Amino acid sequence: MSETATHTVTVSDAAARRIAAILSQTNDADSLRISVEGGGCSGFSYKYDLTSGHEEDDVVLERDGARVLIDQVSLAYMEGAVVDFVDDLMGQSFQIRNPNAIASCGCGTSFSV
């Protein structure tokens, strides 16, 4: 699998294709914002939002028509992570492989550091 890294977060080919497809189908958003929030069964959870525009301190990842925004606070928890999109028998989902996570829940949306 080919991947492109920017600012220590990597967006896989599959994730870039899926993000670009989602963004092409919406008129009011030009980016996918990924953030880390307190909560979830393991302490922190990932949040995904479609948005337009970005904040001054956002890290902007652009690739093949996909645009991902990550704020500086979330970036600290995601350093070295890979954003991927998985389509298998269990379903379709964005998954973040985060080397900083010491534990995660079964659904893969929350983690602890």
TrEMBL record:
GO molecular function: 2 iron, 2 sulfur cluster binding; 4 iron, 4 sulfur cluster binding; iron ion binding
Residues that span the membrane, as ranges: none
Stored InterPro entries: ATAP (IPR016092), ATAP_core_dom (IPR000361), FeS_cluster_insertion_CS (IPR017870), HesB-like_dom_sf (IPR035903)
Gene Ontology terms: biological process: iron-sulfur cluster assembly
Residues in Core domain copies: 9-108
Pfam families in UniProt: Fe-S_biosyn
Protein name listed in UniProt: Core domain-containing protein
Organism this protein belongs to: marine sediment metagenome
Lineage: unclassified sequences, metagenomes, ecological metagenomes
